[in-house]
Fold each of these.
Amino acid sequence: MPFTAHDLRYHAEQTYPALHAHLSWHAQRSLDVLKYDPVEIDMVVGHVVDHLLRLGLLGGEDRTPLTVLDGLSNAQFYAFLNRSARNKAIDRLRKKRLQMIYASDLEGIEGTDIEDDPLNEATEPVSGGVPFPTPEETTLALVSQQELRNLLKHCIKALSPAPRQFYAMLQEIEECDATELLRGLLEELPDKELLSSSGEAVANMSQHKDHAHKKLRHCLQQQSTNLTVIVALRLTEYGVRSTHSQEFLVDIQTLAQEYLSEGDVRIGLKKLADEGLLDWHSDPVVHITSAQMKRLSRFYREE
């Protein structure tokens, strides 16, 4: 639900849920490797809310003097909120990096052999180049890999209500020799009875695997905070087949819902066009072919 500075001043109780949801979405989008940490999201949201309270805008009604924010246009006010959330998120990421550096230093003090340090190995590839400028950047990258692994585990476990599809994915993971991921899935499996039937032959395995891949991609897209992925997902969900052609149609206003502005949508559409996934030239209505729709349903990018 859209809201204005005027709404926050005079209708704070009714508007606060929309404000909180808006800030939470932008906080998660900006927190990078911390985006699944509810404590970090709450800290970002709380920071912006406290700022609005100190200014006397949130719930101030006529008891507090008007501020500069009261005179902003809706677009300017949203830009202020988004920038405030992003700045706090960057601050939280910076502090997390310092904590990682400090923890790394403590490990060194406690007698860790520098030659056996996995961070040093990660920063010295065979090619001779340095993929990350500092050990703390490497640490963040390793955390990001763990985060992606956890997301994959979440989406794969969501297949458990369809045992054949779930087993098809377990079999594929085993074939790829991803033993750590497989072990983590089996340890966290809520229904152990699924394992007892996993050795049984499954008919039409390739078909079950295709269905599992489709659900897995959709789950990954739903969990993503990458703007381009979000826009791609909305194109597949909101696109309506035209009665006069074999295309799907969707207008930008339809895509600009749930905390995405039209500007955000246009940025995402442009990136998809640059990727060759769309033929879009700033038109208010997006035309999507069946082939493009299939490719959009498979589109995914890490943050």
Amino acid sequence: MLLAGTVPSPSFAQDKVVRLTSLDWPPFSGDALKDKGAAVAVVRAAFAAVGYELRVGFYPWNRTVALAKEGGDVQGYFPEYAGAEVENDFILSVPLGTSPLGFAERSQAPVTWNSLDDLATKRIGIVDGYVNTAELDARIADGRLRADKANSDATNLKKLAAGRIDLAVIDLAVMNDLLRTNPDLTGLASGLRFNAKPLEDKTLHIAFHKGEDGKALARLFAEGLAKIDAKAILSQALGS
């Protein structure tokens, strides 16, 4: 029985376990990857540094986000880019790392652009539910740019190679890993490349469920991250 005026401890503080969701997004996260992926390795080490165990469940992207938003036993999801829509619904952690976001293109059909408005005639592949950049997402939302949705980065690369889209928004590390390890894509690697002009160097975060527990976990993660060499862990896990 709780004494009058006392506040129950959150479940993660009672059992010292943090429960997050993620997706198969190699090399950053994936159930079949070594250490469950580079981002998972960093997050696990950070929470371990403050005495907490990390447990990660892997799901399709939209389910990953929905479970974290519902709350319950799931306290958040990762990796996520910062963005206004995300920050409306979740509490973002301090960055656990960075990675360049840009366009994949066909080697024989390179695209030169200075402003996103230069891409108005291009068919741009995006992954349904992903945050890209504020400028790009705004132009897609109001119809200034033509977006073609897919359920994964791998599907977008296949569509790009087949000429069904002109560009595909993708993280550079994800693109390199997919073309190196995905048996459906390795044969396409020589025909695809990363566009010379990146969109943005994106920070990677945990998105915690909104509320006091989320705020406490964000503080806990920041404390743990300060105790480890996240850059070295990420580099080692990425093989760089």
Amino acid sequence: MSGKIVIPVVSLILVVGVAIGVVVVVHKNGEDPEMKTQQRSVQIICQNAEDKDLCQDTLKSVNGVESADPKAYIAAAVKATTDSVIKAFNMSDRLSTEYGSQDGGIKMALDDCKDLLQFAMDSLEMSTNLVRDNNIQAVHSQTPDLRNWLSAVISYQQSCMEGFDDEKDGEKKIKDQFHVESLDGVQKITSVALDIMSGLSNILQQFNLKLDLQPASRRLLAEDIDNEGFPTWFSGSDRKLLASMQGKGWRSKVVPNVIVAKDGTGKFRTIKEAIASYPSGNKGRYVIYVKAGVYDEYITVPKTAANILMYGDGPQRTIVTGKKCFANGVKTMLTATFANTAPGFIGKAMTFENTAGPDGHQAVALRNQGDMSAFVGCHILGYQDTLYVQTNRQFYRNCVISGTIDFIFGISPTLIQHSVIIVRKPNMNQFSTVTADGTAEKNMATGIVIQDCQIVPESQLFPVRFQVKSYLGRPWKAYSRTVVMESTIGDFIHPDGWFPWTGSNFENTLYYAEYANTGPGADVSKRIKWKGYRGIISRAEANQFTAAEFLKAGPQSGAEWLKAIRVPHYLGFKA
């Protein structure tokens, strides 16, 4: 009886197999339109990706009618990035619970990671909202914002990694586990999203979508700027305030929201109290006047305190000071005397210093991650790691910045203009490097640009300036990007100009360039011969590093936000 049953079953299997084969053939020969559209779309979207396999895998969730919409693929890339950051955040929380009580250094690093990954999620939330609420043409016009926010995600991920001390076995073990299981994924998937956004113009043209390719600066002047030079979204009270802060005697024209004075003549005696007074739901500028005095306090402007304008009685008179340092067991990020995490912050006529000295090793005076922030007429003083330009678009003008090793460092789009950069005397057997940019992926919108600055030695360094080696910079990460242009470079800068990062081969992937510099240190004939060193670049190539291009915001071509806040600047070249 069992033999009689087997034959029909086998026959049935064959029939079903033939039926399936027929279905497959019909679909194959008929070329399922949705599948064909999806495959072709992914091919176009991923053409600019370094890791095409990961890109295609990231976008495979897009199907159905969405497969013909390029915006759906951008949304999918942002969502995948968000999912990877959430996974990393949850892992940092779990690791903190498991290991935090055993080791104070591990707990400090993991707590910092949670804060940083939360900032990354904030950037991704803005990205998600922008893509969701706009058509593809509007998304394209705001590519600078999306690239900035996505670059910030990698910056926060890198900052999290840097918080662990590789020389301590416990911390290194946790770091390696964290990296392999989640943090590496954050960088790779975010890089895919950046690759897509960097090639968006070409992608949309291949989708046969009509784009407005007119220079955004013309559109801005026609549509977004009123006859006073302010963007239309800038409040009337803000325009009046910022316009009043010009020329001699401007302080007498400004009415601050609060005054800080150590002698009790203001509303508060400490800057920390003044920032804590920031009103919930504030929409306009919140102006804090810090009277002359030395303020020995550690300050963090929270991300919710947007658009603070803080000014003092001049950098020689209003001084914020601290001395936290890595040598005393404090993580680099937490050594900052003054830290700003809020967008739209403006600091004016003040000093921010870290007095730990060269023996303190990493000791940050100012850490800034506020998007579209500016510091004007400020002194930022320290030794190693003085100015931490952590992430997001930043501008510095008429400042004095001093230090020794990597004293301008970070992973952000930063432009330092018309300032004095002072190299100090380091400890014996040390060298000095002005910059250490941490751009980690090719299409990140980050880098350090020094324009129309004087790069000089301090008086203590001057007599031994040829014995102590000083360089323009060294590459902190693989795609380090630094440009020095229209600046005066002193004779103490080593003829090599740039110094390698120990144990790396970043010399092949970095981007270092110089343009229209003067002074005895500007001679490039004996500069290093790295693949990534461009030497003196053309004016056309240098143009991408002017404020108009390098600090783009939204659909605005050029740093119109600098115009809006009436910060003095060059949008283009000095000459």
